[in-house]
Amino acid sequence: MKEPDRPAYGGAPMQSAGTCEATRLMLEAKRGDARAFDLLVESLRGRAFHVARALVGSRDDAMELTQEAFLKVYKARETFREGEPFLPWFHRILRNACYSFLRDRGRAKERSVSERAPGLDDDAPDYDIADAESGPLDAVETTERAEIFWVAFRTLSARDREILALRHFDELAYKEIAEALSIPEGTVMSRLFHARRRLREELEKIPGGPA
């Protein structure tokens, strides 16, 4: 799947920090090293923004939620346990912030098991998301290709958006995605396969989309 045009929002991609490095920085921050926390934020904020934006749509909302997630991490730093990988812990905080935001605005509806799309191989919740009417397009994303992509992308569930964002926006390896989501690599591959298929099906429904 070709990557759509995407905005720039400070920070290096998540994989530049790496799982071990992110955990090391968090442990140093927990011990009172403010510079370590600044480095952690700098390393992860680009990836966190892309994931948040994939879930909530709005660029401005995604920026605010990214900042909110890091603030929650800082406030909860004393509860971070030695020996626990940081990225899954952080991803849960970010994901929960996004879902709470969507639910509070009536834009997220949890899917029942019977409504789940094929390819969801565990019992974790999935959500249908009603995007704001303005949509997530920015001035830098007004090309026809980008607009077609985002129209199709907005039809996907939260689970599909999340896995596609981690793989294609942040270019994480399967192992890194597995670590962030606390799932096996085989589950990552399965979710990606089905999410890509559903996105392709939605793209084919749009006039001007890929044949």
Outline of this structure?
By secondary structure, the protein is an all-alpha fold.
Explain what you see.
- By secondary structure, the chain is an all-alpha fold.
- It has one domain: RNA polymerase sigma factor, region 2, helix turn helix motif (Rna Polymerase Sigma Factor, Chain: A, Orthogonal Bundle), CATH 1.10.1740.10.
- 58% of the residues lie in helices and 3% in strands.
- It contains eight helices and two strands, in the order H-H-H-H-E-E-H-H-H-H.
- A two-stranded antiparallel sheet has the order 1-2.
- The chain is globular and about 55 Å long.
- The model is unreliable at 2-17 and 133-141 (pLDDT under 50).
Distance between the termini: 14 Å
Order of strands, main sheet, comes to 1-2
Would you tell me the overall average pLDDT?
80
- Show unreliable segments: 2-17, 133-141
Largest sheet: 2 strands, antiparallel
CATH classification, class level: Mainly Alpha
- Helix count equals 8
Helix residue percentage: 55-70%
Helix- and strand-based class?
mainly alpha
